[in-house]
Amino acid sequence: MATRSMAIHIDEGRIRRDLTVRKAGKIGMILEPLFAYFFLWAPIIVLVIFSFNDSRSVATWRGFTLRWYGNILSGAVGAEARFSTELMLSALGTSLVVALIATLIATVIGTAVSMSLVRGNYPAKSLVDGLLLLPVVIPEITQAVSLLLFFSAIFDFVGTTTGVRISPGIGTVIIGHVVFNISYVAIVVRARLADMNPHLEEAASDLGANPWRTFWRVTFPLILPGIISGALLAFTLSLDDFVVTFFNSGPGTTTLPVYVYGLIKLSVSPEINALSTLMLLASTVLIGISMALQGRNAGRG
Amino acid sequence: MQQVGIEIKNVIKEFPARRGEEPVRAVDNISLQIYEGEFFALLGPSGCGKTTTLRMIAGFEEPSSGEIILRGKPVQGVPPFHRPVNTVFQDYALFPHMTVLQNVMFGLEMAGVNAREARDRAAAALEMVRLKQFDRKPRQLSGGQQQRVALARALVKQPAVLLLDEPLGALDLKLRKEMQYELMQMQEELNMTFVYVTHDQEEALTMCDRIAVMDRGKVLQVGRGNEIYETPHSRFVADFIGETNFIEGKLTAINGKKATVVLPGGVEVEATPDQTGTSLNSSVTVAIRPEKITLVHVSLPTDQGLNARVSTAEVMSAIETEEDRTFVPGTIIFSNYIGTDTRYTVRIGESSTLIVREQNFGNFKDITFKVGDQVMVFWATENARVLIQ
After folding, report:
1. Inter-chain CB proximity B110 and A209 less than 8 Å
2. In Å, how far from its chain's centre is CA B123?
3. Which parts of chain A sit beneath pLDDT 50?
4. ipTM of this complex prediction, to 2 decimal places
């Protein structure tokens, strides 16, 4: 069969048009994230900048100062600073206690849940798996209100049956935090566990380790980075939480975010900017560690 | 009489149905006896149930019904950590957070052996597999080295039975051959029962004393390698182990150890009837290995008449033997030179073809065949087997 060469037809105009579109696309690829990040970060950047502003005004820049940070820490009160270091430290203390206890409980339960979800084999597993995500996706206000109603129902019941009056306080706040933290811990640990070679546990069992020893000698050391990372995430969420805490704390239990909210009701003072900046810093560090742990060792095992 | 180490009695393993699917019967009523000190292979394609069988011996799975008896003791309900059995996993399953030595010591620690003795025994086991990197983590080792650690870890507890789940599958060919040899030596030295799961028929033939060929959850045939190769009882076994020609025909006569099968086109061949027996006039398959067939030149007297080399009668008289042989005329239709051998495709009868392997010894131009050559094909009757379809 004879082959016939065909003339190649090139439409230069069309090529030029296509190249222009492509160029526009490239510029768009750079501009798009710039816009997105601007909206994400601009308010935070303003907050951080004005925490160093040498003026009570939060609108105009008057020069650099560390006065507001000093006010937070020095205990300055009165006309100059509408701020009480003592109250802030007490709120911070409450925040830390709540976060620590809630994290501890949520980490233990969350790890157990993830073990059951990854290794377990029971009929409604996919349902349980789906329910695990619920606290992450339902509006926080819904969760907060439902907890409030739940607690008052329980307290009513206990009150009418035993005569013991219980009121919301630090205990209810901790329980509320545990509730949403379990999901986050379980999701992080589950990912780690799912990455782990299931033959490792079989090998341990094969070599004479009962399930208890298999968990502590093989499974636990291998998922530990996941557990720590989940715990750090839970701790951060707990420290930052406002809505659930606000609804379930009752009088007398004030965490740092609730305290800040209280201050803001009067007016936005530069001390709040400074305090928020410090909280931002703490959260960023914790989340950074958590993410580093999730990234490290991933895929190993 | 050899002592039975593992007895598998009518074991069935069914996995529960997934949504919208039938329950899967991974192992379908198998019975096996594995002797003490034997190198035993479970051989079959993927999904044949060989790994499930191994996992039931190890205790990772419980049979749905039937019994597994280890050294005379039924092990129903005994968890893996109480069975005197250790496993070498396909992916080695080395503990990534422990050093090589810690990996090997793990089993001894779990058995309550004191640290000093455990260390000595682990070191001895590692020496046996010729590994010196005690303090490395598994990921710092090559595949072959990891394989050795897995072996040492399983052997150090001196189990009654060592289970190996395709342990050489991830290694390259050369290393695999080396490890095959080492495993054989080790098994002989330790005189331990090895149960070896593989899909590689050559590996099973090379290493193992006896082989159980499995397919779709059933054991099709158990026997020594040469028995299975030479006298396969089913088409699947003949096909799975080595290369085999299958020619279809009709069984016309059985006379003791000789069956006559008529191929399409009326050509008659003789073969050994299968043990299970078949009825006359039924459709059957004759199985014959390519290397069991011999080719000789014939050029029937033609008009030219001059290139006749050998006549059928001459061929028959030339092969002085008391064995029964079947002679069939054929035509070479394809020839494929592959180094040590040449593979010929020969048409016999109307539509049957045979693959024939001829070794390329010497430089005898006379015994090479060209496409189109008229040949005489023959084989010893006992090497051809009639299989029921």
Report:
1. yes
2. 35
3. 1, 79, 298-301
4. 0.80
